[in-house]
């Protein structure tokens, strides 16, 4: 297919594929000059018609490249002049990568000739496109000047004696045509330089450029003899344009502007602008050559070279990771010392709403509107039962104390020595049992009274919070503390300066913002930069690792000469340069970021303290409110337990009170009987006048015994202060 290639772009594709597969083949099979598998390869020389044979696969590749360039040039000649891509790429690759001794048509001079002819014609296409697009005159002049430069290089190659002998008669024709083009495009360049001078109103320069263009065009016309009619017609048209421009410019300058016309060599020369490119030739591009049909043939040398390349990649990764880890260690230590958590450094949003846990408690109480009322009623009932129990026990204690007092009086009346004050009296069995039980109940009551007091304290502590939670959410939100940060204030600066209103500083006084929110926002911004730096560093590290892992150049190593391995490694490792630059920039930025963070943290210190205090109060308040909600059920439970306890104790105390009353009545009756017996044992008293003093005093008997002479008649005694039970005496 490559030998009988069709004259179209499909033929170009076939030549490229064949060239690429030859490249793959020669890297596996020793088919080079004087190698074991070399075979004779014959091609016909284009100019002499001789058959040239070499036992070297590179000769086959060189001939294919030559034909690729030739086919591109044929297609370019047939195509419309709208593309600046050219066939120079094949000839350039052939010149730079293959020996020039295979045949004379592949000599260095011939290849240079071909390259510059192709580039010159491609630049012509670009020049025509620029003129049709009405580009600026100076740009068009530079493009045309570059056409001249390319053709001058081609002319030098044509003037070489070796080239002249090879080309024979056509050498003169080509040289004449190339020289004609040199003059023609030089005229076009100066025509547009004159147009630029006209735009700049440099009328003297305009005249000399147009004159120079006219002179060069005349030279081109002389060299164009024998050229086709189309060329002659183009030259005549150009002459009309340049001649008209020159005559008009000269006339205007002579009669209107009168500017001096400088010499051409005093003006700056027009520098060419090479804007065309050769089609690159890459024998290992799979998009062009197709898949390597010898891919499974991998020489051991290629495996060894791949291992060496892997070590180069590992070394690169170790160097980069050492730098990253060093910077990360510094960053981690710094951030640990600062104790700045980006997630919590700005907790202002927390104060703008009620926390979910509190909302949950409010919602729970909203469906139980009688919560506080029930708790208050329960505690009131408990207080009532408590009071009843306390009253019953007090009455029992009063009865016992009264009975004790009556017993002492009886003992004194009978002349017996009563027990010392404060010592337990001798009680009747019934009263002793009542006293014992009363003491037990009093002890239990005292302990329960402490519990009851604590329960009331707890209720008083939580009742307000429960009322708050049961009320409108606005009140709950208002009850929570919130920070009061300054905004837009300016502090006065010492050292001879002061701040003007609105933050405008008087001389010698730099503005000193006292804006807490601005300080906070600045700190957040820098912390975000720190995190961005971390994330970017991690991302770049991951990209580098993935690139290294996927980087397999075994195929390239197969087709590369051993002497070129080091160069190939260097070229392949360049693919990591960009990501290394990004990493270096990231690591270098750390010092500036941390310095900015240090400065921001210094300004943040006061704000941080204030926020910490408010946050502590906030958390405490929330916890207290939540604790009050959670304490409600416990309060109700303990209140019910207290009611049950005191109800039971009240029943027992009531029974004991009845028992105490009965026992006291029995004891009183017993004392009356004893007193009556004692009275009967005494002789009848002598009647005497009643002593007035006894009418106002209770019955008093001396400790030594009864004295009949001291006792008034029983019927005449008036004892208004005696208990009802003793008045019959």
Automatic annotation (TrEMBL):
Keyword vocabulary terms for this entry: Coiled coil, Cytoplasm, Endosome
Residue stretches of biased makeup (Low complexity): 703-717
Principal location listed in the UniProt entry: cytoplasm
Annotated source species: Burhinus bistriatus
Record-given protein name: PTN23 phosphatase
Domain BRO1: residue ranges: 1-331
UniProt GO cellular component terms: endosome
Location(s), subcellular: Cytoplasm; Endosome
Coiled-coil features, chain-numbered ranges: 386-416, 523-550
Region annotation Disordered: where it falls in the sequence: 673-717
GO biological process assignments: early endosome to late endosome transport; endocytic recycling; protein transport to vacuole involved in ubiquitin-dependent protein catabolic process via the multivesicular body sorting pathway
The UniProt record lists the keyword Cytoplasm: yes
This protein's record includes keyword Coiled coil: yes
Lineage, broadest ranks: Eukaryota, Metazoa, Chordata, Craniata, Vertebrata
Gene3D superfamilies in the record: alix/aip1 in complex with the ypdl late domain (1.20.120.560), alix/aip1 like domains (1.25.40.280)
């Amino acid at each position: 297919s490559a030998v009988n290639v069709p004259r179209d772009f499909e033929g170009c594709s076939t030549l490229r594929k064949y060239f690429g597969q030859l490249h793959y083949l020669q890297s596996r099979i020793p088919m080079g000059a004087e190698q074991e598998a070399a075979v004779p390869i014959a091609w016909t020389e284009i100019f002499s018609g001789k058959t040239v044979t070499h036992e070297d696969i590179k000769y086959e590749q060189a001939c294919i490249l030559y034909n690729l360039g030739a086919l591109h040039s044929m297609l370019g000649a047939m195509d419309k002049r709208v593309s600046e891509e050219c066939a120079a790429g094949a000839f350039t690759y052939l010149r730079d990568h293959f020996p020039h001794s295979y045949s004379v048509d592949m000599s260095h001079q011939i290849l240079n000739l071909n390259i510059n002819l192709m580039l010159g014609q491609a630049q012509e296409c670009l020049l025509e496109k620029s003129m049709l697009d009405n580009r600026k005159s100076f740009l068009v002049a530079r493009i045309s000047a570059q056409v001249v430069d390319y053709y001058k290089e081609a002319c030098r190659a044509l003037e070489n004696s070796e080239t002249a002998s090879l080309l024979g008669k056509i050498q003169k024709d080509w040289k004449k045509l190339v020289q004609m083009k040199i003059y023609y495009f030089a005229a076009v360049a100066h025509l547009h330089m004159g147009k630029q001078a006209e735009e700049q109103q440099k009328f003297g320069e305009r005249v000399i450029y147009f004159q120079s263009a006219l002179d060069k065009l005349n030279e081109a016309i002389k060299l164009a003899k024998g050229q086709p009619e189309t060329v002659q017609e183009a030259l005549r048209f150009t002459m009309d344009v340049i001649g008209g421009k020159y005559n008009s410019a000269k006339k205007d300058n002579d009669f209107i502007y009168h500017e001096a016309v400088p010499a051409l060599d005093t003006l700056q020369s027009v520098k060419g602008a090479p804007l065309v490119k050769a089609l690159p030739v890459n024998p290992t591009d799979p998009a062009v050559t197709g898949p390597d049909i010898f891919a499974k043939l991998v020489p051991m040398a290629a495996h060894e070279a791949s291992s060496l390349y892997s070590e180069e990649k590992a070394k690169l990764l170790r160097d980069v990771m050492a730098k990253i880890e060093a910077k990360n260690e510094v960053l981690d230590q710094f951030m640990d010392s600062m104790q700045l958590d980006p997630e919590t450094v700005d907790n202002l949003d927390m104060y703008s709403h009620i926390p979910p846990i509190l909302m949950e408690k409010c919602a729970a109480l909203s469906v139980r509107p009688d919560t506080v009322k029930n708790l208050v009623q329960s505690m009131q009932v408990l207080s009532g039962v408590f009071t009843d129990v306390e009253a019953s026990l007090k009455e029992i204690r009063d009865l016992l104390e009264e009975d004790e007092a009556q017993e002492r009086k009886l003992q004194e009346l009978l002349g017996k020595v009563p027990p010392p004050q404060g010592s337990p009296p001798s009680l009747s069995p019934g009263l002793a049992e009542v006293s014992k039980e009363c003491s037990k109940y009093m002890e239990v009551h005292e302990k329960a009274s402490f519990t009851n007091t604590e329960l009331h304290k707890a209720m008083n502590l939580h009742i307000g919070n429960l009322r708050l939670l049961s009320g409108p959410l606005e009140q709950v939100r208002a009850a929570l503390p919130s920070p009061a940060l300054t905004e837009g204030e300016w502090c006065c600066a010492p050292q001879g300066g002061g701040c003007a209103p609105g933050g405008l500083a008087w001389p010698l006084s730099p503005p000193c913002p006292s804006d807490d929110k601005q300080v906070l926002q600045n700190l957040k911004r820098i912390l975000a930069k720190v995190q961005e730096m971390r994330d970017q560093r991690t991302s770049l590290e991951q990209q580098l690792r993935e690139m290294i892992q996927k980087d397999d150049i075994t195929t390239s190593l197969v087709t590369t000469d051993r002497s070129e391995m080091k160069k190939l490694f260097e070229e392949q490792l360049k693919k990591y340069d960009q990501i290394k630059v990004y990493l270096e920039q990231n690591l270098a930025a750390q010092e500036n970021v941390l310095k900015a963070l240090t400065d921001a943290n210094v300004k943040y210190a006061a704000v941080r303290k204030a926020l910490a205090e408010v946050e502590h109060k906030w958390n405490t308040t929330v916890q207290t409110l939540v604790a009050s909600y959670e304490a409600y059920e416990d309060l109700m439970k303990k209140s019910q337990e207290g009611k049950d306890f005191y109800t039971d104790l009240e029943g027992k105390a009531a029974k004991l009170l009845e028992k105490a009353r009965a026992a006291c009545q029995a004891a009183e009756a017993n004392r009356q009987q004893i007193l009556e017996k004692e009275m009967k044992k005494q002789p009848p008293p002598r009647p005497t006048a009643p002593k007035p003093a006894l009418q106002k005093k209770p019955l008093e008997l001396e400790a030594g015994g009864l004295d009949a002479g001291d006792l008034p008649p029983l019927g005449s005694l008036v004892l208004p202060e005696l208990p009802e039970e003793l008045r019959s005496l």
